[in-house]
Amino acid sequence: MTLSNDCEACGFVDEAVTMDDAVVALRGFGRRYRAPLTRFLPGEDGDVVLRERPAPGVWSALEYAAHVGEVFRWYDEWVRRSLEEDDPVIDAPTPDEAAEEGRYNEGDPGAVADAIAAHAEVLAATFEGVAAEHWQRCHIRRGQRRSVLFTARRAVHEGNHHLLDIGRGMRAVRLRARGTGS
Fold first, then answer.
1. Contact at 8 Å (CB) between 40 and 46?
2. CA count, 13 A, side-chain hemisphere, 155
3. Where are the domains of the chain?
4. Where are the beta strands (DSSP E) in the chain?
5. What pLDDT score was predicted for residue 182?
6. What does CATH list as the number for 14-177?
7. Strand 138-141 and strand 144-147: pairing?
8. Given a cut of 80, is residue 1 above it in pLDDT?
9. What is the pLDDT of residues 49-74, one digit of tens each?
10. Which of 9, 59, 74, 106 could lock 63 by a disulfide, CB 3.0 to 4.6 Å apart?
């Protein structure tokens, strides 16, 4: 069974992303995330816009951003293990567990943006150093074998998809603050 990151919700097409594309995309995420985390409309409370959840069970913009930074850090570790070990089994908390344990919604937005940029750069450099003959080296996560190439594509998907989540969430919070509904 071949895993795919294809996503109808954001339009991501797994096979359209090469390893070179992944490296370039990762290096752009720091800049792309910094803007929504640090720039706000005149007169609005940026802290509310970033930390308020737009709906029950939906993360805040800051929670999504902190998740992305942590995912990039995890993926770097998992890829490195995949290159050093044969099919290492990866155990990590679920996203909701990690958000609660890491207190994502309490972070400093600038520090979260810095972490995304730093972890994305480290991951990009790791991918850059992987020879093509090792792209199919795997780790096992949740019972599925996940290759280095799959992980590179997954990183790009996570980064792009959660930017959309952040934008949607911030819009909903802004609309609610203006009293125009969600």
1. yes
2. 38
3. 14-177
4. 89-90, 138-141, 144-147
5. 44
6. 1.20.120.450
7. antiparallel
8. no
9. 999 999 999 999 999 999 999 999 99
10. 59
